[in-house]
Amino acid sequence: MKKLLQEFKEFAIKGNVVDLAVAVIIGGAFGKIVSSFVSDIVMPLVGVVLGGVDFTTYKWVLVKASLDETGAVAQAEVAVNVGIFLQNIVDFIIIAFAIFMMIKIISKSKEKMGKKKIEENEESVVEPSKEEVLLTEIRDILKNNK
After folding, report:
1. Of 17, 54, 58, 64, whose CB neighbour count within 10 A is largest?
2. Residue 80: beta bridge partners?
């Protein structure tokens, strides 16, 4: 049992697990923001452009609700909520596009950082002094004369 707990502790402390946990938490918050953006901003604008249609209420009713003698609901309505499904599709497309753009930006910044490191390494190579160049030329001439 002690070995199992030690293995679990090593697993939980690894950087990958912590990074994954942070990604899940931030992803959940990001998803809420995008869902709010879609349902509160994008879909009302799309509805206005299409003539005042509210997609969240758009549904295909399979069985209508029925009332009993007292006016209470005897059987609830059975419907396919097409509008909510369409809104979720728009959510997905916007989230996928946002993640694509974030990955693209991160990749470009990594490329730039890599190029800067290469340039720094090239700059760190010290040019030989005039004396060293002259001595190298003399050495090469002497080698060729032998």
Report:
1. 58
2. 60
Domain 2-145, CATH: 1.10.1200.120
Q: In the chain, where are the structural domains located?
A: 2-145
Strands, E assignment, 34-114: 60-63, 66-67, 73-75, 78-80
Amino acid at residue number 66 = S
> What is d(CA 123, CA 92) in angstroms, rounded to the nearest whole number?
46
Per DSSP, which regions of the chain are E strands? 60-63, 66-67, 73-75, 78-80
Neighbours of 87 (CB within 10 A): 20
Amino acid at 74: A
Q: Can you give the pLDDT of all 146 residues of the chain as single tens digits?
A: 888 888 887 777 776 777 778 888 888 888 888 888 877 888 788 778 877 777 778 888 888 878 787 878 778 888 898 888 887 888 788 878 877 888 888 888 888 887 776 666 666 667 788 888 888 888 888 888 86
The model carries a pTM of: 0.50
Q: Dihedrals φ, ψ of 69, to 5°? A: -65, -30
87 close to 56: Cβ distance less than 8 angstroms: yes
